[in-house]
Specification:
- The chain contains 7 helices and 9 strands.
- It is an alpha+beta fold.
- The strands form 2 sheets. Strands 3-4-2-1-5 form a 5-stranded mixed β-sheet, sandwiched between helices. A 4-stranded antiparallel β-sheet has the order 6-7-9-8.
- The longest helix is centred in the middle third of the chain and has 14 residues.
- The chain is elongated.
- The two termini are about 30 Å apart.
Length: about 200
């Protein structure tokens, strides 16, 4: 039987998350996209079974799909959130629910970037405009798809910029920049409480 590890519906995308997803290869994510549905299932081969059923019954577009040895995860978008909600209901009905809450495996804040460090980040991440004195927050979490929720909520709730969004197997990583005081709130355990409400 299919085991549901994570199921997240983001009904309103922040502009930074939209840009980060486009930069990571989600070129078909447009301005008419309502939101995102992210889910992770185990075993990995069941990802395609679920995806096929979703495509038959819901009008959604695939943004990302990844399968490792144990699990697979998918990110979908649609022109209407009702289609994403229908897809979420289908996933829930086809799986055993054992959803994991967001687990922050590590988080670190650099309170004031040096000029050299800011320049290095700007070179590495071509679209970044990080300046000396900015704060830098790196968050690693599980399940991987929860990185999308963290990035979206952090950008909507404070003035920060999403620098990077990565998936490392079953873990996700979010790198944010902004004022050190604002970023400090999003370190563990505060952030786990915010994401698991």
């Amino acid at each position: 039987m299919k085991e549901l590890i994570a199921l997240t519906l983001i009904e309103r995308l922040s502009s930074g998350l939209l840009l980060s997803l486009k930069m990571s290869g989600a070129s078909n994510l447009g301005a008419n996209s309502a939101g995102l549905l992210c889910f992770e299932v185990r075993p990995a081969h069941e990802t395609d079974t679920l995806l096929d059923k979703i495509f038959k019954y819901c009008q959604v577009e695939l943004i990302q799909k990844q399968m490792d040895g144990r699990s697979g995860w998918v990110v979908l978008t649609a022109a209407e959130n009702s289609q994403l909600r229908a897809a979420a209901e289908l996933v829930s009905s086809e799986t055993n629910a054992s959803e994991q809450s967001t687990q922050v495996t590590s988080s670190s804040v650099v309170s004031s970037l040096s000029q050299e460090h800011a320049q290095q980040i700007n070179r590495q991440l071509r679209r970044a405009l990080v300046s000396r004195g900015s704060g830098l927050l790196t968050i690693d979490c599980r399940p991987a798809t929860h990185a999308l929720t963290i990035a979206n909520e952090a950008e909507k709730s404070m003035s920060c910029q999403i620098l990077q969004l990565k998936y490392l197997g079953s873990s996700g990583r979010v790198v944010l920049t902004g004022s050190a005081d604002a970023l400090q709130y999003w370190t563990a355990p505060n952030m786990e409480v915010s994401c698991n409400r």
